[in-house]
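Each field is set out underneath.
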Amino acid sequence: MLARDIMNKKVLSISPDHSVSHAARIMLAAGISGLPVFDDRGRLVGMLSEGDLLRRAELGSASWREFAGVGAKPEAFIKGHSWRVGDVMTHPVVTVDEDMPIGRVAELMAAKRIKRIPVTRAEKMVGIITRSDILRAIAASVPDVVAVGDEAVRRAVLARLCSDLGLDRGSIDVTIENGNVNLWGEVNSETLREAARVAAETISGTGGVRNRLRIVAN
């Protein structure tokens, strides 16, 4: 599955010259937590999110005052006091191409600690992906489909254990009993033993998994 398969194509946006309060009202009315910011030439120049608005002077809290006085960061003062979106937004913007696999998109969002990411085609924004879109993709996913039959399931499980976990085919075996998968052999850690169980459970057609793998020291 690619970015274009789960992205939202209808995206609200705002100008860097709009006010912060106007942006906040749009976000509240639409039930969204961030807005892409486009300049008057249609270029994506930033993202405004809830996180950008947590240290505002309007809140009357001490969160922005910690930057006051000697050694204060002027950037923090601007971000806390300016009424312009352009002064408060986050930039530059992290984007992904529409053909990027969603697994890579999720990894990028986690690495950058961002909740939304614009999707581009030929450097033009065509949609946006949020963490909610990633969750919906996970909720809609189903186990891998394999051919019907015990031997087909057995081979699929073995292939998954060897290809995904790097287990040695000579040290493991899989048997099927009344539709249930039995894992046999040796691994070198409890984590790998549990990973083998999870890998087997991802194969459609397994009635259940009995993990009989033993842990042996290297």
